[in-house]
Design brief:
Length: 430
Amino acid sequence: MRNIAVIGSQWGDEGKGKIVDWLSDQADIVVRFQGGHNAGHTLVIDKKVFKLRLLPSGIVRKDKVSILGNGVVIDPWALLEEIKDISKQGINVSPDNFMISESASLILPFHKEMDEIREDAAGKAKIGTTRRGIGPCYEDKVGRRSIRVMDLRSKSNLDSRLENVLLHHNAIRKGLKKKMYKKKDLLEELLKIAPKILRFAKPVWLKIDEFKKKKKKILFEGAQGILLDVDHGTYPFVTSSNTVPAMAATGSGCGPDTINYVLGITKAYTTRVGSGPFPTELSDKIGETLGKRGKEFGTVTARKRRCGWFDGVLVRQTIKIAGITGIALTKLDVLDELDEIKICIQYDLNGKKIDYLPAASEDQFNVKPIYQTFPGWKSSTKGVRNMEDLPEKAKNYIHAIEDFVGAKVSSVSTSPEREDTVLIENPFSI
C-alpha cells in the first residue's frame, strides 16, 4: 500500500487536475489539504469537461471518498454552489463520498471584501490574489478568531464566535469608512446553511487513521504550486498557506509517515498568474505562442497566464524543498512548433552567477536567466502514449530536464485527455 502526495512544482497551473484524476482512478481516498476555492482543476473525461474549484478531483469518480482537510479554508456558499453545479453534470455528492473536516475555517463575506479592498489599495504592489477571501480567512485562523465548521453546530457558540471576529473586522472597517457588519444578519445566514454543511462534517483525522488501518490508498491533492508557498515561495507574491507536501500531514491530520511518494507536477515550460517575479518570462511572440497553444487562462479567474521558458533552477529548488520523488511532465505538445527550446540553468545577479532563487524579493526581480538551448523537434507529440513514439529531440529534452533537476520523469502528458499520457513509472505500483 502506498499513499501519494501530488503538488505543483512551479507556480501552479501545471495540469494537476488531469494527473490527479488519473491517479484517483487507482486511489480509494482523495484529500485536499490546503488552499480554498482559489484553486482551479480542469478534468477531461470521455470528452466531458469538469471544472473544480474546491471539491477534490476524486469526486468525479465512483466508489471514491473525497475529503477537505482542516488545512483548507471553505467558503460554504461557494462549496454548495459547486456541489449544485457538478450535480447537473451527473455527479452525486453525498456524505458517503464526501466529507469536510470539522476543524476547517470558513470564509465569510467580509473576508472577500477585505481581500478586494487591499488589492485595490495596493496599486503596483498588489499581490494578484483571486479576491476570494482566502488570505483574510487564514489571518483570522492564525489570529484564533475564525469561525470553523464545528461552530455551526451550536447557535450560542456561533453567536459568541461571531462577536469575537466582528470585533476585529468592524474596527478595521470603521477605520476604512466601510459599512459595519451586523452579527444578527450573519448569524441568520450561517444558521440557514448550517445543516447543508454539517451533513458532511467529520473528524477527518480519525477517518484517515481508519483508512490507513484498512490499507486504503490515499491521494493527497495540493491546490497550488510550491513557488506560492508562504514560506518557500516568491514572498510576498504567494498564497496564504503552506503548499509543500509536508502540509498534507498538517492539513489533514496524519503523520508524515503516511506519505510514501511525492509527485511533482511540472509543466514543460513555465507559467504564472498574477504579480511577482518571473525570471524566464517571455513578452514576445514565443510567449504569445505558448499562451495560445497551451490555452493559458485560469480555470477559476479566466486571467491570462504569463508564459516563459522552463526554469530548471526553480524546479530543482522546489524538488529539494518538497522532497519530490518523481515528476509528471505536462503539456509537452505545446512546444511542438518551436524551432528551439530553452532551459534556464543559472541566474545572473548583478554580475554574479548563482544556482538558486534568492530569498529577497528585490533580488528575485533582478536575476537574469542563463539558458541552455535545445533544437525543437518540429513534429507533433499530441496524443502520443509511448516513449518510443516521441521524436528523438523531444526525448532528449525530457532527459535534459531529468538530469538537471535531479528527479526522474515518471510520466509525460501529451494532451488534456487522461489517456494521452506516456507512463514511465506508476507511483502506486512502485
